[in-house]
Amino acid sequence: MSADCIFCKIANGEIPAKTIYEDADFRVILDIAPGTPGHALILPKSHGEDLFSLDDAVLQKVFPLAKRVAKAIMKATGAKGCNIVQNNGEVAGQTVHHFHVHIIPRFGTEGNIVSWNPSGYADGEMEVLQEKMVKELHG
């Protein structure tokens, strides 16, 4: 736990929140500034600034929990789908530097909550990036 991290304080019960699930590793709360009604955040109780600094043992539990929570949220809200979003770094939209996962129910009426403008690659650029990434992943 980080003494000055607001999500650590919420995850560990020092600051009240609308909790919908809790276990030894996580607290899941309703977001106070939701994209849609039912928008929830999965907060690990252990501190890691982002995906790259969170313990792998905790990370292994995140998506099974996200699946369980998302199904419950969709059933409870009547949502037709959901976004499961996790941002790393300010340029990626991370505003609180404590790893967390957003579960945003989608109803088909809210417009784009998560979107980007598709671009493309110059000739040969995709292959060059592919080769660099394969080298990084496989040495």
Automatic annotation (TrEMBL):
Superkingdom, natural source: Bacteria
Family annotation (Gene3D superfamilies): HIT-like
InterPro entries: HINT, Histidine_triad_CS, Histidine_triad_HIT, HIT-like, HIT-like_sf
A Gene Ontology biological process term: nucleotide metabolic process
PROSITE patterns, alphabetized: HIT_1, HIT_2
Motif (Histidine triad motif): 98-102
Active-site residues (renumbered): H100 (tele-amp-histidine intermediate)
GO MF terms held by the record: catalytic activity
Pfam families on file: HIT (PF01230)
Domain HIT: residue ranges: 6-113
Name under which the protein is recorded: HIT domain-containing protein
Organism: Oribacterium parvum ACB1
